[in-house]
Design a protein that fits this description.
With 326 residues, the chain is of the alpha/beta class. The chain is built from eleven helices and 15 strands. It has one domain: Vaccinia Virus protein VP39 (Rossmann fold). It is globular, with a radius of gyration of 19 Å.
């Protein structure tokens, strides 16, 4: 299977080429082809067939009480459609309503959206969303007037969840999820007006390198939105877990706000603002019928909910914005 036969990423390549970065567009195209060919879990054909079987119309998309709503409630047999959508389990970011069926995702991503929406200008912006999952935030950004949203996520399942939603969305909706990671942000290419990194920083072995890569692709004066785990304590401190944190293997550095601010300043960002600091609750992140694996209630100490199962402070997340100063 060729990526160009499966996905319509041509508008992304054209945007990069028009900005003078044809070589970068070619590199991204090649990385996508490699990801498709590798298909680490061997499920791509299965997901493509599940998408093919989804009903094809009518095409519509709007937001209702935080849900991305596509399709009509009378478009298909609900039991069959539910089974088809369950073929894309686990659904982590959302919520969605597809053909009248509510997909209650692990994360109430609409709550996170509400924390950033009033702090970012999306209208007529070209936006990069790093670690975008299934593209939920991209739909919200389009609703807020974005011109194009380019999401990066290396997990093919999330890409295929997005493609399932796209099948019922209006043709030409400029929200794309590319099956690649942020390792491709490897050059000076200031082609995005806004860059989001939400839930990514603490997974990076070098958080400063991650911030520098975001700066490289952001227009001068453009806006960064960073959402990450923090340690809600004073001073310039960093927690580096000895092993897992909240049962996650790949958590490396969790800073305090002061330390995160310093990282941003040293990287080349200015006008840094703290938009929100919120402890993650078991109402916001939990297992559901659409994500049946363990979730936050299983990650906390059952006898002391202020600590993770490993004894670290429980998850607290902060949202900051900053501007590219150089």
């Amino acid at each position: 299977m060729q990526a160009d036969d499966l996905f319509c990423f041509q508008p992304v390549y054209e945007h990069l080429a028009a900005a003078g970065h044809q070589d970068w567009a070619d590199e991204i195209r090649g990385a996508i082809e490699s990801a498709i060919a590798l298909d680490q879990h061997g499920n791509l054909s299965q997901w493509m067939e599940a998408r093919r079987q989804l009903p094809s119309g009518p095409k519509s998309l709007h937001v209702d009480d935080g849900r991305i709503v596509v399709g009509s409630a009378v478009m298909a047999d609900t039991d069959v459609l539910r089974e088809q959508l369950m073929g894309f389990h686990p659904w982590r970011k959302g919520p969605f309503r597809v053909g009248g069926i509510d997909i209650d995702t692990e994360w109430r991503s609409d709550w996170k959206w509400n924390r950033i929406a009033d702090h970012v200008e999306f209208r007529d912006r070209v936006i990069l969303d790093v670690g975008c999952g299934n593209g939920y935030f991209g739909w919200r950004m389009l609703e807020s007037g974005a011109r194009m949203v380019v999401g990066l996520d290396p997990f093919l399942l999330y890409v295929m969840q997005h493609e399932a939603i796209r099948k019922l969305a209006p043709a030409g909706a400029a929200n794309y999820v590319l099956p690649v990671g942020d390792q491709l942000l490897n050059r000076e290419a200031r082609v995005f007006d806004v860059v989001l990194s939400m839930g990514v920083l603490y997974h990076r072995t070098s958080p400063v390198d991650h911030l520098q890569s975001l700066l490289k692709v952001l227009q001068r004066g453009g806006q960064l939105v960073i959402e990450t785990l923090i340690i809600d304590e004073p001073g310039q401190q960093v927690l580096m877990p000895e092993g897992r944190y909240a049962k996650m293997r790949n958590v490396w550095f969790i800073p305090t706000l002061e330390m995160l601010t310093l990282w941003l300043q040293r990287t080349g960002f200015s006008r840094i603002e703290v938009c929100d600091v919120t402890p993650t609750t078991t109402d916001e992140q939990r297992s559901t019928d659409w994500m049946t694996f363990e979730s936050l209630p299983n990650f906390l100490d059952p006898d002391q909910s202020s600590r993770t199962i490993e004894g670290y402070p429980r998850p607290v997340r902060a949202v900051l914005t900053a501007r590219a100063a150089r």
